[in-house]
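Pasting as-is:
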Amino acid sequence: MKGEAARVLALLDERGGTLAVAESLTGGLLAAELTSVPGASRTFRGSVTAYATDLKRDVLGVDGPLLAERGAVDAEVARQMAVGVRKALGADWGAATTGVAGPQPQDGQSVGTVFVAVAGPDSPGKVSALRLNGGRADIRKESVRSVLVLLLGELSGNGRAQDTEQNGEF
């Protein structure tokens, strides 16, 4: 994962861009991965760990009726988190993670259901839907890797408007 984080930060640095992240199920792991790269402060603005649903609404600007209707584990919620953290922290790019790491299902979604999203200056947001296997730690780690890969694709111009399959499901 360190390789993906370093590449994301290098691409942002080359372009003079900045990044902010909004995390739910990853609980700060994405920010930790990014800040473990020397020189991250040149491009990484900060993060919001919005574990509670009301913080997604009140801090990140996720639509309240959407949260009430679909819950926090949803593709559109992830997209709005990425857009919202961009605005809240004044960054060029935003990235977000939301999902169910376990051990119990949440909001009608099974363990391993994850949505990662990125939003940039010329993008309304791109989301990948993931179905991850493994334990809680595995799901959280793969969520971080997946959002970094999605961000790399967008930064390098190779992003695709599609959902991503992981571990053969979804």
